[in-house]
Amino acid sequence: MKKICSMLGLLIAVILIFIPQDASARSFFEHSTTTVPAGQTMDNLYVLGGDADILDHVTGTVVVVNGNLHLASTAKVDGAIVVIGGRITQDEGAQTGDDILNFTLDTATQNSLLIGGGLVAGVWAVQLTCSLLLVVIPVLTYLIGGRKAAGWIKRQPDLSWKRQLYLGGLSFIILAAFCTLCIVTIIGIPLLLLAILLLMIAYIVGITSLSYLVGGFLQEKWVPNEWVRLIIGASLIAAIANIPVLGWLMILFLTLFSLGTFTKCLSSLRRRKPREIR
């Protein structure tokens, strides 16, 4: 029963995170004409698969993909203008910045190839960067931390990973509820940044610990070297994370394991402080 309640709470927390909190925020993926009416100022405008009509002021960047851009005589754009797969129509009197980029090919097929190729290249670049970070972060943690980090990493495989996942699930529910509360209240935005920072630290701790744990499965076939063990474990995690279905499960497992490991570290540090005072 406790496991069912934990899973339901985890599912509710995930749904709350991905629900839009601002009803006035418009989607980036408009498939019709998006208009900036007169008397309204926007920071940035992103339109995918539709046209854009600007009648007033845009202080930031304007990006239109697979659509046309119309600048009225009263329009003013301070930032860069990027139009891919469409045309730019500018009325007399419209004010623009220095950077205007327009990538338009002759046929719709060529435009689709340009857009699709750019998206695929961007996804590959992000995927490659994340894979490298999964390998580099544990090694840097072991290198920068010195003896303390090495001793802490060696103690982690002795802990129960099931207990770490359970602690991670509870921590995830608490963190998700806290982030939702911070998003609703404007005052809580600085606390939200602090929560994101703690989550990043938890990821660093969890990736390092899990890499050493996974590398230990191949310890019999390799020389028992901490560097080799850590790099092999991190490489295996990065390889599994790139598999379409298993990758998402691996990310979920890594998130819960990282939060559980970080929570365990905080509790152990809290227990050691009274002993040091005595």
From TrEMBL:
Keywords: Membrane, Signal, Transmembrane, Transmembrane helix. The keyword Protein transport does not apply. The chain crosses the membrane at residues 121-144, 165-187, 193-215, 227-245. Residues 1-25 form the signal peptide. The keyword Signal applies. This is Polymer-forming cytoskeletal protein. It comes from Paenibacillus chitinolyticus.
